[in-house]
Amino acid sequence: MISEQLYFTAPGKLEIREEKLPALETGQVLVRSLLSAISSGSEMLVYRGQFLKGFTDPVDPHSSGLTYPFKYGYANVGQVEAAAPDLDPAWIGRKVFSLQPHGTHYVADCEVLHPLPKDCSPEAACLMANMETSVNLVQDAAPIFGENAVVLGQGIVGLLTAALLAEFPLGNLVTADRYPIRQQASLALGAYASFDPGEPDFTDKVRTVLPQGADLTIELSGSPLALNDAITLTGFGGRIVIGSWYGERKAEIELGGKFHRSRIRLIASQVSTIAGALSDRWDKRRRLETTWAALKRVKPERLITHRFSFQDAASAYKLIDKSPQESIQVVLVYD
What gap in Å lies between CA 129 and CA 186, rounded to an integer? Predict the structure, then answer.
């Protein structure tokens, strides 16, 4: 069978290529794609050529050994069309989520597929990976009753993280993003206030809400320069959780001033693993169950602003790259 796959071939360049799929082996299924979500964070680094070339991550195969041309993506919802003879025929027709690159069909081991719960729509399920990232971020942040929190960046992961934090009995929750469409979405999800980090008085505005600074700051803007804002906004003894992937981009971080005496903790958070402090009680299965429940509560499909045909994927990436102020979540739809 012939499948069409989306390839990143150079900065700003995409191609849809035909590929012959392998025959089904033991334990495998053939899946036809229904929807796939585009990440405006890591995928934009790939699209713009800002990823670490050839970088190999031993715990995250989706970020390993990247060199053009290659396929990328990790938010696919599809329907099983065929199953190997050894599998239960009930697999056929089942809707599933998988960490697959953008493409019309794929063959995969059924063990890597996640069947959608009956009450979960494909639109919500295509944001499964983003929600799991947000669940991981909040677990790493470990918010405490009455704390004041700041989330820098209100892309899809930032918004979902803010939505989860809004479920806690925090003192205040403040968010930041350059684009009004995302600020408004943040307020609708439960943030107390949302400000533009590009305004000259940004930190002063946050300080009017949080005069003692934040106890917890989560950096999800994708900009390494935002770490300086995070340090400025975080109070003595607070913690900064860094969830952004900066790729090859670097910035001067101001560690010689307030940070030096502040006892602020910097915490790296990445969804490929589970924090050591939780690993005795939490595994991937439990976190995924928690993620499905969060999808049901938050209903992230309301954050989808644009749908493009897979054949028009170039227009989708161009929109995210050139007009980010117009979108929150963009998805590809497969006819």
Answer: 19
Specify whether the CB–CB gap between 234 and 262 falls below 8 A. Answer: yes
In tens, the pLDDT along 215-269 reads: 999 999 999 999 999 999 999 999 999 999 888 888 888 888 888 899 999 999 9
Q: Which residue has the tokens 């117009």?
A: 326
For tokens 């009753």, what's the residue? Answer: 145
Three-state secondary structure call for residue 283: coil
pTM for the structure as a whole = 0.94
Class of the 2-116+301-333 domain?
alpha beta
Domain ranges (residues) in the chain: 2-116+301-333, 130-268
Inform me whether the pLDDT recorded for 290 exceeds 80: yes
Q: Which pLDDT belongs to residue 148?
A: 98
Phi, psi angles (nearest 5°) of residue 138: -70, -35
pLDDT at 65 (0 to 100): 61
Q: Which CATH architecture has domain 130-268?
A: 3-Layer(aba) Sandwich (3.40)
Cis omega (within 30 of 0) for bond into 122: no
pLDDT in tens, 140-180: 999 999 999 999 999 999 999 999 999 999 999 999 999 99
Examine domains 2-116+301-333 and 130-268 and report if their fold is the same.
no
Q: Hey, what's the torsion of the CAs at 132, 136, 139, 145, to 10 degrees?
A: -60
Rounded Cα distance, 305 and 232, in Å:
33
The helix/strand/coil state of 50 is: coil
Round the average pLDDT of the chain to a whole number and report it: 94
Q: Where are the alpha helices (DSSP H) in 252-333?
A: 258-262, 284-298, 313-322
3-state helix, strand, coil in the chain (%, to 5): 35, 25, 40
Q: How far apart are CA 192 and CA 170, in angstroms?
A: 10
Whole-angstrom distance, CA of residue 334 vs CA of residue 309: 6
